Amino acid sequence: MESEYLNLGKKVLEEGHEKTDRTGTGTKSLFGYQMRYDLQKGFPLLTTKRVPFSLIKSELLWFIKGNTNIQYLLQHNNHIWDEWAFERFVKSDDYSGPDMTDFGRKALTDSDFNAVYQGEKETFCNRILEDEAFAAKYGELGNVYGAQWRKWKTTQGETIDQLKEVIQQIKTTPDSRRLIVSAWNPEDVPNMALPPCHTLFQFYVADGKLSCQLYQRSADIFLGVPFNIASYALLTHLVAHEVGLEVGEFVHTLGDAHLYSNHFEQMKKQLARDARDFPTIALNESKTSIFDFEMDDIQIKGYDPHPGIKAPIAV
């Protein structure tokens, strides 16, 4: 099944359109691509490079809890979202350190600047962990996934817990065609640290199995997509566990599927490796609600990947 992902990487390298992008890095991309993973045949955690499952777990649990502050992530040694919070801080009047303008690109090309940047970001992260007031002000990312899933704001000033409601709908009306959670709110997009890349997901029940389809508007193939595949596969397992169904398929539909220009060689290296068997997932059977799960309640079994392949993130 890993061929689903590898075929995408190969196709974009060979046939992708050269595009400019928000980060200024440059990409090759294709529009409209779909992958399917049968979750009965293993958990789709890529084996052609190591994908850190602990980061996937903590990020997904962060979403499920409705949390939008990076403090929770940092407490679990997860630095996926650091840059977005750090960017808000260095643009604020409270920041008085070295100039961090365009830090994402400058850090890739200027080793001296990168050393300064890493030091400033480490100091920032430590303050988030140690200073509650600072964390409340600068660790907060606003209406990102956790807020949209659990606290969607209505025009009447109320909130909708989309995730809780869709789980209840699966239990009571499993044949519904409205088993949908949306993260894309046009009103919020201009003020968000990063508008949702995975914008909408839908559940489907058939033959005693729960399937999930994700529509992802923007897909960073090398760094982001492996996380997204595993994250939504895990979400499907967790929801299926609560509603008493087996897992079915994870269907991954991509809008702009792109490889950044500074990921081409890494993708080629990954494509040269042989895929291994997918691992399996083990959930704490004593937990009956998705909202009660913690890190230790989710374990991966039989994961034997090739070594990781480092690549720069485009901010």
UniProtKB/TrEMBL annotation:
Pfam families: Thymidylat_synt. InterPro entries: Thymidate_synth/dCMP_Mease (IPR045097), Thymidate_synth/dCMP_Mease_dom (IPR023451), Thymidate_synth/dCMP_Mease_sf (IPR036926), Thymidylate_synthase (IPR000398), Thymidylate_synthase_AS (IPR020940). It is found in: Cytoplasm. Gene3D superfamilies: Thymidylate synthase/dCMP hydroxymethylase domain. Residues 4-315 form the Thymidylate synthase/dCMP hydroxymethylase domain. It catalyses: dUMP + (6R)-5,10-methylene-5,6,7,8-tetrahydrofolate = 7,8-dihydrofolate + dTMP. One of its GO terms (molecular function) is thymidylate synthase activity. The keyword Protein transport does not apply. Keywords: Cytoplasm, Methyltransferase, Nucleotide biosynthesis, Transferase. One of its GO terms (biological process) is dTMP biosynthetic process. DUMP binds at residues 22, 177-178, 217-220, 228, 258-260. The active site is at residue 197. It is an enzyme of class 2 (transferase). Transmembrane segments: none annotated. Homodimer. Belongs to the thymidylate synthase family. Bacterial-type ThyA subfamily. NCBIfam families: PRK01827.1-2, thym_sym. Catalyzes the reductive methylation of 2'-deoxyuridine-5'-monophosphate (dUMP) to 2'-deoxythymidine-5'-monophosphate (dTMP) while utilizing 5,10-methylenetetrahydrofolate (mTHF) as the methyl donor and reductant in the reaction, yielding dihydrofolate (DHF) as a by-product. This enzymatic reaction provides an intracellular de novo source of dTMP, an essential precursor for DNA biosynthesis. This is Thymidylate synthase. The lineage of its organism: Bacteria, Bacillati, Bacillota, Bacilli, Lactobacillales. The gene is thyA.
